[in-house]
């Protein structure tokens, strides 16, 4: 049961995960290209992307990168899932909180 909890949590915020993983993957691609001494131009050009010849990794490395990206994106997704499941704060509650903090 505890093993499936992270998957359920990610499943509750799929669009948030999808939007958040793009800049993480793009940033990782920039770091990899820069450390390999390759041109970064293709990462900022219009689609379709044309990576330089020989760019890329084998499948085992791709799986490790995928696990790393999920590990990086999981904490913000977990936070957003908790935020979504919490009861909404009403404007009247905000007014009462701000009125009491001024005393």
Question: Topology, pairings included?
Answer:
Layout (H helix, E strand, L loop, with lengths): L4 H7 L2 H22 L23 H27 L5 H11 L2
Helix pairs in contact: 2-3
Description:
- With 103 residues, this protein is an all-alpha fold.
- It is 65% helix and 0% strand.
- The chain contains four helices and no strands.
- It is elongated and about 60 Å long.
Number-wise, the strands total 0
Strand content: under 5%
Largest sheet: none
Helical content (DSSP H or I, runs of 4+) = 55-70%
Q: Which value, in Å, is the CA radius of gyration?
A: 20 Å
Shape: elongated
Span between termini: 47 Å
Keyword list:
single chain, 4 helices, 103 residues
Please give a quick description of this structure:
It contains four helices and no strands. It is mainly alpha-helical and 103 residues long.
């Amino acid at each position: 049961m505890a093993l499936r909890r992270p998957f359920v949590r990610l499943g509750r915020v799929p669009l948030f995960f999808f939007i958040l993983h793009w800049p993480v993957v793009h940033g990782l691609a920039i770091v990899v290209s820069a450390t390999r001494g390759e041109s970064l131009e293709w990462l900022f050009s219009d689609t379709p992307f044309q990576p330089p010849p020989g760019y890329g990794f084998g499948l085992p490395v791709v799986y490790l990168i995928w696990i790393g990206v999920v590990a990086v994106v999981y904490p913000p997704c977990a936070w957003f899932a908790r935020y979504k499941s919490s009861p909404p704060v009403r404007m009247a509650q905000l007014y009462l909180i701000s009125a009491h903090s001024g005393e």
